[in-house]
Here is the input.
Amino acid sequence: MIREFISDRISLLLITSILALTIFTITMSIIIGDKEKKNRLLKNKLTEINSLSEGLLQIKSIVRSKEKKIGLTNSSGVVSTIEHILKKLGIEASVIKPLEKRHVKEFVEHDVALEIKDIDLNSIVNLLYRVENAPQPIKIKSTLIQTSFENPDIFTLKLTASLISKG
Here is the structure.
């Protein structure tokens, strides 16, 4: 009887141990599966954040360059800036006159009207390129290109531009 009792006790202990080990294994596999799923989600979010941060860094560098451009405009006015660009290209304007000065939020916009007679298409393209890539932030507001009657390859250019600076 004692042997049966000890044998039943050992069997019961063995069955209980196997049952506890099985429950522990199932619980741990559920917990590990949940942690792996959370890990995959976090990795996906991390790659998304990294891609967004690259775009943000590009935008930040563009903003810095524009702010730097605006900071450079304090030394000269819009007329002298346009005259400097024209001088570099070897173009003479028949009319350069400053127009109105407007305050737009924390910036000041200085307008200038420009008229150039007897200019060819290549010079117009070079002028527009130089204005676009000037160290100062210059915005072309309007352009009017008219052909001459004598020579269709010669034009009259009327341009309105503005220089943006900090107010």
